[in-house]
Amino acid sequence: MFQYYFLLGLRSLRRNPALTALMVLTLAIGVAASISTLTILHVMSGNPLPHKNGRMFVPLVDNGSLSGYTPGNASGDKQLSYRDAVNFQNSKMGERRSVMFGVGGAIEPQRKDIGAFTSQGLAAYRDFFPMFETPFLHGQPWSEADDAAGADVIVLSRKLAEKLYGDSNPVGQRMTLMGFQYQITGVLDTWEPVPRIHRIIGSGAFGSEDSYFIPFTSAIRHQTSHNGSMNCSGNREPGYQGTLDSECTWMQFWFEMANDGQRGELQNYLDSYAQEQRKLGRLKRNAPNQLFSIDEWLVHLRVVGNDNKLSAWLAFGFLALCLVNTIGLLLAKFSVRAAEVGIRRALGASRSDIFRQFLVETTVIGLAGGMLGLLLSFGALALIGMQSKQLTVAAHMDWVMLAMTFVISVAAAILAGLLPTWRACQVTPAIQLKSQ
């Protein structure tokens, strides 16, 4: 019976093509507006490593000065000092851990057709690569011995490797970066996590990918300047060593635990560490020590702002307005078929039969609106992506949102069809037969 009603629904689309096209277009516009904004919100708030959400954590300790501090006020700092970051790195806590900070400098290609250019990268430990599940096209990360020795080794992004060496495998070759010779140990395959949870501070959650990765210890040994934000709440001695010895915060850190049940263990370590540091005269604010999972970190840094959420609500409000118009059009469409309903009722069709038939017809309209809405959504996302490079990364539809388009469209059509369908079921057969 459903198949029969479905075929009737397809035929009914041709009865009044102008009215049908207006209903489908109204529904499609509302769906496109809501889906395009919902897609942006979905991508921006997504977790690129959902299976590690209960295992990966960002630690924060408040090392600010007491000057101007009010107890109970949360610190706005979201990074660590060099001292705390290195202590965490040497703690051996968890399965993996890595301190990191952004670097940038000049690259001097061996090719004569390419001049020197600047590029940004990341200084980190070897654990960074398996922690964030970076895919390798050639080679592998540097070794733990390279971390310990501060060796001049480097991992390139695929984009940078192709720019410098074409399609050839550059592993084992040496390149000049910031005036020093680095040996290439690996080349990453295309890696574009959205959002970029490891680089939200500095280059942004939707910024461009890092072109290279070097050992943290090598960057410190060469006194490499950091490429990112720094917050200094106290005095700092001049020079690079003065920055390392200061309470300036400019480094980021991630722990990866062996399983999801070790958050309490890590929190206990963090509290014990802070207590020991207070005995040394540091962390004078005695503020709570914080741990953030991936999802909590995204919320803490407000990757999805209130403006994005408001845009989504406004889009769904527009969809509701489109539904009101669709209800009016369906009432007009079904009212002209009162005679047909009366004859069917007289021939023995029940009100439930009429209800099912008209509801299936509205579902057909929803499917048509979903297909057109999907095309309009792709167009809207393309226009949004043209506004900025960051929006280009976020303005793409995955399978979840593709399915959501049809779910929202059909659900909206059924919701809009409830009142017109109920009205159609109230037709009195005797009155309709007398009028014929």
UniProtKB/TrEMBL annotation:
GO molecular function terms listed in the Swiss-Prot or TrEMBL record: transmembrane transporter activity
Location of the protein in the cell: Cell membrane
Keywords annotated in UniProt: Cell membrane, Membrane, Transmembrane, Transmembrane helix
Segments traversing the membrane: 312-336, 357-384, 399-419
Broad class of the protein's primary localization: membrane
Gene Ontology CC: plasma membrane
Keyword Cell membrane among record annotations: yes
InterPro entries, alphabetized: ABC3_permease_C, MacB_PCD, Macrolide_Exporter_MacB
Residue ranges occupied by any MacB-like periplasmic core domain in the UniProt entry: 20-223
Membrane topology of this protein: Multi-pass membrane protein
Residue ranges of domain ABC3 transporter permease C-terminal in the record: 314-428
Name used for this protein in its record: ABC transporter permease
Species annotation: Janthinobacterium svalbardensis
Lineage, highest ranks first: Bacteria, Pseudomonadati, Pseudomonadota, Betaproteobacteria, Burkholderiales
